[in-house]
C-alpha cells in the first residue's frame, strides 16, 4: 500500500496538497479515512464556490441585454410609451434574481460522492475563461458601464455556476421567468429550454397569459413589468407570433388605460367605421376559413330551394354583397343545366336595425349601392333579382313588415350577423334571442348560420384573453399561407383583426360589441328558439371539400364535422376558427 494519497484536482485548476502525516504513531501511514478526505475536499470546493459568488463584477452590458433579470438599483416606474424599457425590466426583476442567486450560493446541491461533485471539463474551462476575463476586467478601471461590450456580465457568471449546482435541463427561458405568483397563473403552456424561435414564441404566449392573469388578480405591478418585456419581442411586421404579441400587448395596455405613443383606447366607433367595414369584407375574401363558411351557407341555401320558382332571402348583414355574387353565379349555372325548369325569381331583403351602431356605415345609400350592383350582376347572368332594404328593430320583425309574399321559399341568412347583436349579458331585452324567435315565427325553409368559434361574450376576462390568443394567433398564422405579407389588403385585414381583439379583450359590458360564442352555445340558442338542425349532406360537403383541396398551400387548413354532420368547422392546424350550420 502506498504511504499517502495523491493530490486530487477539484476542477478549478487547484490541487489539494498531500495531507501531512499523523503526529501520532512513529511517522506511520496516514491515519485519515477516505470518507474524511472526501469531506475535506468538498468543504474546500464549497469555499471556492462561495468566493466566486462574492466576487465584485462590473455589469457593463446590463443595459444592452434585453429582458435581463439581474441586479440593478431600484428605479421609478417607466412609461410604456418610451422607446427604452430596460430600466423598468431590471427594476422589476432585481429582487427575484437576487433571491435566487443568494439561495443557490448559500445552499448548493452537493452530490453524495466525490466523483459526482466534480464539474465537467467543459464547465471547468468555461469557469477558467470567466476568471481570466474577470481579472482583466478589474485592471481596466472604472469605465462607462453602458459602453463596454467585453466585460463578463452577471448573466454569464450565473449561467456557468448554475451548471455546477443544477442539471442543465433545469434552465428556463428568460421570457418565462415573469414575477407572476402561482395563484395568478390560470392558463399555462410549456416553454422550451432551447433559444429557438418556437421557444421564444411559447415563452411570449405564456407571458401574455400570465399578464392577463395578473390583471385579473389586480396585480398591476406584475402586469406592467411583463408588458415592458413583451413590447421588446413584439413586432407588427414579424412572424405570426410576434404580430400576435403586438396585437395583444396593445389590447392589454388599452385595458389598463396606460399611455402609449401613437395609440389610445379605441372606442366602439372604431369597429363601426367605414375602414373597419371594408377590412371585414376583405377578411371574408382572403381567409379560407371565412370564405368556406360563406360557401357552405350558399350551398345549404341552394339545396333547400332547389325546384323552387320564387326565392326570398332575408339577410341581417349583407355587407358588400360578395356572398350573393357567388350565389347568383351558382343559380345561373343551375339554370343552364336545367333550362326547362326556368330561371327562379330572387328577392333579397337587407334587414337593418336602426338602433345598432353598425347600421350607420352600411345603411341608406350604401346598401342601395350594393343592391344596384347585385341587380346588374344578375341581369348579366340571365336572372331576375329585386333588392330591398327595411329598417326594423328585432321586436318589429314580422311577415308584413318584411313584405313576405305567398308562395315564396323563405330563406334567412345569418352569416356573421348574430355575434354583433346584443345578448342577455348586455341587454335585458336580449335582441339576439328575440331575432331568433321572430325568424322562427316566419317558418323559413332554411336558416344558414355561420359564426366564429370563440367565446368572447360571457367568458371571464382571463379565459376570454386565452381564447383570443389561440383564435387570433391561428388566424394570423393562416394568413401567412395565403396572402403576401407586404400586401396592402393584408395590412388592412390585420389592422381590422387588431381592432376586434382590442374590443373583445379591453372592453366590458355594452362597450364589447362583438360577442362571439362557440358552436355548442349556438346550438342551444337555436334549439330554445324552436329550430331543428339540418344535417349537411353530400350535396354540401363534397363541393366544400373540393374547394378546400383547391386552395394553394392548403396543408394547414382543416375541415371537420361538428355534432355528427350538423355543422362544418373550418380551421388552421386543428384550431377551428369558423363553423357553418343549417337550421329549419
TrEMBL record:
Motif interval(s): VHIID: 311-315
GO cellular component: nucleus
Natural source organism: Musa acuminata subsp. malaccensis
Keywords: Transcription, Transcription regulation
A Pfam family that the UniProt record links to this protein: GRAS
Renumbered residue ranges of the record's region Disordered: 65-123, 167-200
GO molecular function: DNA-binding transcription factor activity; sequence-specific DNA binding
Protein's name in the database: (wild Malaysian banana) hypothetical protein
Amino acid at each position: 500500500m502506498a504511504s499517502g494519497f495523491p493530490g486530487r484536482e477539484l476542477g478549478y485548476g487547484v490541487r489539494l496538497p498531500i495531507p501531512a502525516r499523523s503526529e501520532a504513531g512513529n511517522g506511520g501511514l496516514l491515519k485519515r479515512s477516505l470518507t474524511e478526505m472526501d469531506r475535506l475536499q468538498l468543504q474546500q470546493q464549497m469555499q471556492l464556490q462561495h468566493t466566486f459568488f462574492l466576487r465584485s463584477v462590473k455589469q457593463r452590458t446590463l443595459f444592452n441585454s434585453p429582458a435581463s433579470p439581474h441586479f440593478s438599483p431600484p428605479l421609478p416606474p417607466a412609461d410604456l410609451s418610451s422607446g427604452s424599457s430596460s430600466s423598468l425590466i431590471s427594476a422589476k426583476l432585481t429582487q427575484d434574481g437576487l433571491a435566487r442567486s443568494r439561495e443557490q450560493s448559500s445552499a448548493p446541491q452537493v452530490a453524495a460522492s466525490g466523483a459526482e461533485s466534480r464539474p465537467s471539463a467543459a464547465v471547468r474551462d468555461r469557469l477558467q475563461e470567466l476568471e481570466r476575463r474577470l481579472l482583466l476586467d478589474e485592471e481596466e478601471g472604472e469605465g462607462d458601464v453602458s459602453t463596454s461590450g467585453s466585460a463578463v456580465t452577471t448573466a454569464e457568471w450565473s449561467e456557468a455556476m448554475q451548471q455546477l449546482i443544477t442539471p442543465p435541463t433545469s434552465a428556463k427561458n428568460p421570457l418565462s421567468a415573469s414575477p407572476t405568483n402561482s395563484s395568478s397563473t390560470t392558463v399555462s403552456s410549456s416553454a422550451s429550454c432551447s433559444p429557438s424561435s418556437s421557444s421564444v414564441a411559447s415563452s411570449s404566449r405564456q407571458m401574455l397569459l400570465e399578464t392577463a392573469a395578473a390583471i385579473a388578480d389586480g396585480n398591476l405591478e406584475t402586469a406592467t413589468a411583463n408588458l415592458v418585456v413583451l413590447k421588446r419581442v413584439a413586432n407588427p411586421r414579424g412572424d405570426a407570433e410576434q404580430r400576435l404579441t403586438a396585437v395583444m400587448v396593445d389590447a392589454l395596455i388599452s385595458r389598463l388605460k396606460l399611455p402609449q405613443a401613437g395609440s389610445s383606447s379605441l372606442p366602439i366607433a372604431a369597429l363601426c367605421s367605414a375602414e373597419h367595414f371594408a377590412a371585414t369584407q376583405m377578411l371574408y375574401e382572403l381567409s379560407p376559413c371565412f370564405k368556406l363558411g360563406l360557401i357552405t351557407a350558399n350551398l345549404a341555401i341552394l339545396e333547400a330551394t332547389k325546384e323552387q320558382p320564387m326565392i326570398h332571402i332575408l339577410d341581417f348583414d349583407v355587407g358588400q354583397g360578395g356572398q350573393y355574387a357567388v350565389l347568383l353565379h351558382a343559380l345561373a349555372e343551375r339554370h343552364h343545366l336545367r333550362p326547362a325548369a326556368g330561371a327562379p325569381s330572387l328577392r333579397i331583403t337587407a334587414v337593418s336595425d336602426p338602433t345598432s351602431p353598425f347600421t350607420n356605415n352600411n345603411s341608406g345609400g350604401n346598401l342601395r349601392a350594393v343592391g344596384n350592383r347585385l341587380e346588374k350582376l344578375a341581369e348579366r347572368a340571365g336572372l331576375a333579382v329585386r333588392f330591398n332594404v327595411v329598417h326594423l328593430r328585432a321586436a318589429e320583425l314580422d311577415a308584413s313588415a318584411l313584405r313576405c309574399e305567398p308562395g315564396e321559399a323563405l330563406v334567412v341568412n345569418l352569416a356573421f350577423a348574430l355575434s354583433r347583436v346584443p345578448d342577455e349579458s348586455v341587454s335585458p331585452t336580449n335582441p339576439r334571442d328575440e331575432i331568433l324567435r321572430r325568424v322562427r315565427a316566419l317558418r323559413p325553409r332554411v336558416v344558414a348560420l355561420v359564426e366564429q368559434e370563440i367565446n368572447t361574450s360571457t367568458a371571464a376576462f382571463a379565459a376570454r384573453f386565452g381564447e383570443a390568443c389561440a383564435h387570433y394567433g391561428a388566424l394570423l398564422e393562416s394568413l401567412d399561407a395565403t396572402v403576401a405579407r407586404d400586401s396592402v389588403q393584408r395590412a388592412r385585414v390585420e389592422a381590422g383583426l387588431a381592432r376586434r381583439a382590442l374590443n373583445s379583450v379591453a372592453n366590458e359590458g355594452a362597450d364589447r360589441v362583438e360577442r362571439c360564442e362557440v358552436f355548442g352555445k349556438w346550438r342551444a340558442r337555436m334549439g330554445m328558439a324552436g329550430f331543428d338542425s339540418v344535417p349537411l349532406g353530400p350535396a354540401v360537403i363534397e363541393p366544400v371539400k373540393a374547394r378546400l383541396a383547391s386552395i394553394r398551400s392548403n396543408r394547414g387548413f382543416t375541415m371537420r364535422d361538428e355534432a355528427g354532420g350538423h355543422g362544418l368547422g373550418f380551421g388552421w392546424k386543428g384550431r377551428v376558427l369558423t363553423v357553418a350550420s343549417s337550421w329549419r
